[in-house]
Amino acid sequence: xxxxxxxxxxxxxxxxxxxxxxxxxxxxxxxxxxxxxxxxxxxxxxxxxxxxxxxxxxxxxxxxxxxxxxxxxxxxxxxxxxxxxxxxxxxxxxxxxxxxxxxxxxxxxxxxxxxxxxxxxxxxxxxxxxxxxxxxxxxxxxxxxxxxxxxxxxxxxxxxxxxxxxxxxxxxxxxxxxxxxxxxxxxxxxxxxxxxxxxxxxxxxxxxxxxxxxxxxxxxxxxxxxxxxxxxxxxxxxxxxxxxxxxxxxxxxxxxxxxxxxxxxxxxxxxxxxxxxxxxxxxxxxxxxxxxxxxxxxxxxxxxxxxxxxxxxxxxxxxxxxxxxxxxxxxxxxxxxxxxxxxxxxxxxxxxxxxxxxxxxxxxxxxxxxxxxxxxxxxxxxxxxxxxxxxxxxxxxxxxxxxxxxxxxxxxxxxxxxxxxxxxxxxxxxxxxxxxxxxxxxxxxxxxxxxxxxxxxxxxxxxxxxxxxxxxxxxxxxxxxxxxxxxxxxxxxxxxxxxxxxxxxxxxxxxxxxxxxxxxxxxxxxxxxxxxxxxxxxxxxxxxxx
Amino acid sequence: xxxxxxxxxxxxxxxxxxxxxxxxxxxxxxxxxxxxxxxxxxxxxxxxxxxxxxxxxxxxxxxxxxxxxxxxxxxxxxxxxxxxxxxxxxxxxxxxxxxxxxxxxxxxxxxxxxxxxx
Lengths: 546, 118
Description:
Distance between the termini of chain B: 21 Å
Strand content of chain A: under 5%
Shape of chain A: globular
Largest sheet of chain A: none
Distance between the termini of chain A: 60 Å
Radius of gyration of chain B: 23 Å
Oligomer: heterodimer
Strand order of the largest sheet of chain B: 1-2
Number of strands of chain A: 0
Strand content of chain B: under 5%
Number of helices of chain B: 4
Number of helices of chain A: 19
């Protein structure tokens, strides 16, 4: 039972078999539902808006609960206790922004992409190009995080530790994902997300009940066991500050992270696109309600799973396992249900990555084909638009899949949480201010939109490049490596890991200044049209839809 | 229903006149009066939580029952408030927004239908 060789007790053959079964079953379903589809762009991007609110809500939770949520948060709670829980709170509260301010109005004004809404009453080409740039940037960082996570998971669960072996598995995951997107479009991808969400939430739910049953359904007793197992550092697991309370800088860093988490969700393009897959604004609202219920429930499960892993597996064992914090949930599964439960949880973790990656790919390819190719390059004039658009989107999906595979292989040593936080920071800085201004401020104009998108994007990326995440963290004596991305150089001057506290207010300010100082005025007819449509759904839903 | 068979925006539609209608202004006012204060409320409540977890560690560490401390209860209350605001908004939208927007939409779309002479 050597921990250096994958998770103890893991049976790679069993893990691969269960995962293979998931792929075969979901592919069969994807092929089945794709036969019902028409060939148009609307079907490829949004399944013709044909999903019900509850179905879409389950799919949203499948899109949102990535491996970072499952493995990452459970592991963070097991090792850092309360500070891991803080992520869950931010990730959940963020949904209120989507529910109250964004989902329904966006559903009523757009068709396929974020660019549809942002460019509605602006000059089409520059704003669409900006929206697509930011969509591609967010999707790229998020995609890299998921693919890097897949690499780590492979080492952990399939006992593939060689670089070449991991690359092969990442390539297989990428190829399956491309197949889902090409065959099933949004319809197939949505079903994959629904199946994955059910498996993930059910799996986590069973483990949660199991852990609680071991402690007589007494949560306080479970916490006590985690404290005891934690030894000298155990008591600190219950209190905030174990991870972020070290210095004044880490405290500000935490507030910065908290802002990006709560404001980033409603700016994630693959989440925004899921509001178009329902027929009406009311169904979009029901989707978010379902998503909030399921996501909230899931984060409550991870609280139990995290402390359960701390109590039953122990922080020392988790730290020494390959993948460290990320292995807490799989190790807990093995502790509870042996090889079989570990195999199921391993397969669910893979399914999670696969479904999220497919959702990101379809969003990025829609944005490229619809915003950049059709509207920017071809000025909106293409012969046989529907056919051309889907053709371009499919080709883009293949390119993005290949980029994701290559990036995942290169990024497999990178910190997953950092890449996800980067995606959230860009979404909160570049996308959310622009969306809110567009929906709620009549005067907001093209200059303002370009300032907040490009400004937010540039500030976020520059601050991250010159932050300690990229260079300059002191070498950790335990590993002999610096936790920064680059070793042996230090060009950092920005003290925080998370740029949100600067970049989010800055892009709100840039959007305001651009609007006030810019010479262009939005067309009052389009402003009125957008406002009437956004609130009534005229033109976006049929009168008989209810 | 697909996006392609949605009625296309008519250039002749007088959007500005619709915007100026009192019913529409009422709908807009109701929505904003609910979502803006509610957003301020939950963002403030969340920010308070984040600040407390960062700077009031002593208070958050006070144990209430067994190993359950203030911080855990505060965190779980964020879940409770999120669920409660969601429920309140759905109730509000169902009662105060949907009937009004359905009425406006019905009126405008049937008017458009007649004018189109189909």
